[in-house]
Amino acid sequence: MIRRVTHISVYVKNEDEALAFFTGKLGFKKKMDNQMGPGGPRWITVTPAGQPDFEVNLFNPASWSKGEDAAVIAAQTAQIGHQAMIILDSDDIDADYRALKAAGVTIELGVRDLPWGRDLIFQDLYGNRYNLVQSKQG
Asked: Which residues are paired to 43 by β-bridges?
């Protein structure tokens, strides 16, 4: 039986830029940054401070596939900035909004009140969308 989700991958163009964005602007912690064998691609993961058992893999398709996989690389690269929205949890959406704005993160839709709580939508440096949600208590 499936028990939990441990990782998701986000397609990125540049691992170092993505790592700087997630750690510097979103406050995630770097969990892994390892070379997958001599001359191999990097396995980079970051984790939200409050959820260390869940990791976001910063996946650069071009570094994982070789020339013979050109069609695969092209298809994956085309998804950068067009992935399904990732939903994140907040315990203080107003403070998070101010921190994201101060860090220069693109806010697509500011804080709004909804029947089930409050949310906002922001983008990473490649245009991937994230929904930050603060649910109502109870």
From this structure: 34
